[in-house]
């Protein structure tokens, strides 16, 4: 029943927080746009030279770059197939690749920090008899392994910097301590997650702590979370021993082939990029790609790629031509294929 004229209507916190979040995102976008304009401004004079590079490009390398990206996505599809292996659903390799490209498309069409892609994954895999929990669990496995592979690439880039003397002894010591800390945390986390009793004890302590200090946000139900923990541990034990080798192999294959795609894009314009520059630049691309979730973020990411490599010492015209070509192949072409895949997969009953 609508309120009368004498009644006061008080907006809920959820409604009042939305404008604040919108302003925060908009402010961050403006800051990033300002930084982009500041760093990209020197490259504006290189646009004509970059356009001239396309006239003299060795186009055979474009085919090599596209082929490398196809193989990279094949490794990603294999990684997802392995992560789905313990479950009862059935999906062939090509349709699964279509699901992944469809996820890539929908995250651009509906920016939501990746949630739209997760929802579409659950929706499409359900057509192949996978439960939502199975779709989500396999996504966690795939994302974790891919993150480890990406982190390894970043570490190799840092190692090149150390070898070339690009870091001070303090930088090296700090990175070494950080690396040790990450390894210790990773080992302890796996030790807890791989054993149900340890996991249950850790979960019980966390729920008790949360419900004491964070219950004003939401009270956690230990029994409900424990059921999910049992499900998680059960699925973890269902992976065959052969997957211990195949899962990381597919993750590293995906990342390495993506790095090769980027390197070939420079070779397309006759530039042999140094391995350390390639690896460090690739890591920085991953860092700034998070702005894709912000308003106008996709265009900013495209522009940031040549900025990154120009700052790493690559000639401005080559950084423009190679960086934008890489984005065209590895990002936009995949999303275009994803749109077509989505239309095809939606027809399946």
Summarize the structure in short.
This protein is mostly helical and 349 residues long.
Model description:
Residues 1-18 have low confidence and may be disordered. The two termini are 41 Å apart. Helix 5 crosses helix 6. The protein has 349 residues and is an all-alpha fold. It has helices spanning 13-40, 47-55, 60-84, 93-109, 115-126, 132-163, 169-193, 196-213, 222-238, 243-267, 275-288, 297-311, 316-346. It is built from 13 helices and no strands.
Please describe the structure with a list of short key phrases separated by commas or semicolons.
349 residues, mainly alpha, 13 helices, globular
Task: Count the domains.
Answer: 1
Total strands: 0
Beta-strand content: under 5%
How is the biggest beta sheet arranged? none
Shape: globular
- SSE string: HHHHHHHHHHHHH
Instruction: Tell me the Rg in angstroms.
Output: 23 Å
Number of DSSP helices? 13
SSE layout and pairings?
Blueprint: H1 13-40, H2 47-55, H3 60-84, H4 93-109, H5 115-126, H6 132-163, H7 169-193, H8 196-213, H9 222-238, H10 243-267, H11 275-288, H12 297-311, H13 316-346
Helix pairs in contact: 1-12, 2-13, 3-4, 3-6, 3-10, 4-5, 4-13, 5-6, 6-10, 6-11, 8-9, 10-13, 11-12, 12-13
């Amino acid at each position: 029943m609508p309120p009368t004229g004498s009644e006061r209507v008080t907006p809920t916190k959820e409604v009042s927080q939305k404008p604040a979040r919108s302003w925060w995102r908009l402010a961050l976008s403006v800051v990033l746009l300002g930084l982009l304009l500041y760093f990209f401004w020197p490259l504006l004079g290189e646009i004509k030279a970059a356009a001239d590079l396309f006239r003299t490009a060795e186009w055979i390398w474009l085919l090599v770059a596209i082929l490398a990206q196809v193989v990279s996505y094949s490794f990603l599809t294999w990684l997802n197939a392995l992560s789905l292996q313990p479950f009862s659903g059935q999906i062939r390799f090509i349709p699964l690749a279509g699901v992944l490209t469809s996820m890539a498309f929908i995250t651009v069409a509906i920016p939501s920090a990746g949630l739209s892609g997760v929802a579409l994954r659950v929706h499409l895999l359900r057509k192949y008899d996978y439960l939502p929990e199975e779709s989500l669990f396999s996504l966690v496995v795939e994302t974790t392994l891919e993150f480890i592979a990406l982190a390894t690439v970043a570490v190799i880039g840092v190692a090149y910097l150390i070898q070339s003397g690009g870091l001070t002894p303090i930088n090296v010591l700090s990175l070494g301590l950080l690396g040790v800390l990450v390894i210790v945390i990773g080992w302890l986390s796996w030790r807890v997650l791989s054993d149900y009793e340890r996991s249950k004890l850790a979960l019980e302590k966390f729920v008790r702590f949360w419900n004491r200090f964070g219950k004003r946000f939401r009270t956690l139900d230990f029994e409900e979370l424990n059921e999910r923990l049992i499900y998680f541990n059960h699925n973890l034990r269902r992976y065959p021993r052969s997957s211990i080798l195949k899962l990381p192999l597919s993750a590293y294959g995906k990342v390495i082939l993506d790095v090769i795609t980027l390197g070939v894009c420079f070779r397309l314009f006759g530039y042999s990029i140094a391995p350390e520059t390639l690896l460090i630049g690739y890591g920085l691309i991953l860092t700034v790609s998070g702005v894709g979730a912000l308003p106008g973020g996709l265009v900013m990411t495209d522009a940031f790629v040549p900025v990154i490599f120009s700052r790493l010492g690559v000639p401005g015209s080559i950084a423009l031509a190679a960086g934008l070509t890489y984005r065209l192949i590895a990002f936009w072409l995949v999303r275009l294929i994803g749109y077509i895949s989505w239309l095809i997969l939606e027809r399946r009953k």
